[in-house]
From TrEMBL:
Organism domain of life: Bacteria
InterPro entries, A to Z: CdaR-like_regulators, PucR_C-HTH_dom, PucR_C-HTH_sf, RsbRD_N_dom
Every RsbT co-antagonist protein RsbRD N-terminal domain range: 26-164
Organism ancestry: Bacteria, Bacillati, Actinomycetota, Actinomycetes, Frankiales
Annotated ranges, domain PucR C-terminal helix-turn-helix: 355-412
The protein's name in its UniProt record: PucR C-terminal helix-turn-helix domain-containing protein
Originating organism: Parafrankia irregularis
Amino acid sequence: MTDTKSSRIYFGGVPVDRHLSVRIRELAASVVTELSTQLSAYASLPEEELRGDITQTTRTCIRLFTHMLRTGEPPAHGQLRELRESAGQRADEGVPLEALIDAYHLGAEVCVDRVIATVEPGDLPAILTVQRLLLRYLRTIISEVSAGYLEARLTAIHEEQDARRAMLSALLAASPAEIAARRAAVRLPACYAVISLEIAPHPDELNPAVDALVAARRKLRRIRTELEGGAPAVVLHGLSPDGGLVLVPLDDAVGARPTENLAERSWGALSSLVGQLGRAARAEITGGVVPARPDAVAPAARLATEICQIARASGRPAGIYQLGDVAFDYQLTRPGPARDYLASRLQPLANRPDLLETLRVFLACGLDRRRAAGRLHVHPNTVDYRVRKASALTGLDPTSSDDLPMIHAAFTAHAADVGGLG
């Protein structure tokens, strides 16, 4: 029933707000017991916290709802500051947001169950009114609690990212990284896989009807999500939409010398990781990898970048490569008359970048004209024409088993001349 002289709501002849106000301590204790029993995130919290901050916040929630029952108005923004701050503390403690929201609904359920026992047959209109007010109350506080939680999480994420960027910078500057690692709460591993990546454009980046910047950011976000969520250890990275560096901790590197191949298990995991990144990005990714101790990350990063550039310049398909995979090509990038000669074999294409790029992509696609056409966004017949034209100008036929190694070597030497490799 409801009071005809006021807006107060009655169960069993007693104002519902009074049912709650006289039982705040008892109800709060019951709610906290249910939280620690039914929600694993709360069961793992210290007993002192449950009986302290959590209990106090629960009492505040009951008082605010009691006030709403008495006045019909939801809590004002200023009255919710305590709940917002409490949500931020739960975020800092690692309590999932879904568990936090579940806790507020569970608390409401416990309180309603207690007062509903006092209803009488004529109280149905009052029950419906309380239900509407409760839904409105939950909507108000859940909005505030979620905002407080997310604000704290974003602050923590930004601080964590800044600390990890500082750690990466220290490693790349060959500076002692122990202090930066402590600030980032990251344990320095015995060895890193230092990976240099080149990321091809997503098809949307090449579509004039799509904002290329937005497409590139979406691609990069998917790559970062895959890196940060799929690796068992903390991965450091400095990436742009075109590529960058990634440092993956290793637990079984053999000697951590750049001239050594990675252990089979690590190599398999890294190959799988780069494949996953490519699928997440929906773009081809080429990488060069070098194992290195933390104090040798800087030179390893330079070598990994060279390996990546050589793999791409020599027409190899997307994937990850070690020094041993490109040793011949790497040596070709060292200055000397042989490199000059090889680079000169592509000189006839200097004024035909369309032919040069088509030939490079044709090699990267394993001489598959249809795949190359898809990469270049042209008709397969156009690929055939350009390859024939390039062959006529250079005297090198990519479909010839005798000429193919020379073409790969020529591309490597040409890339060294153009890109400054070696």
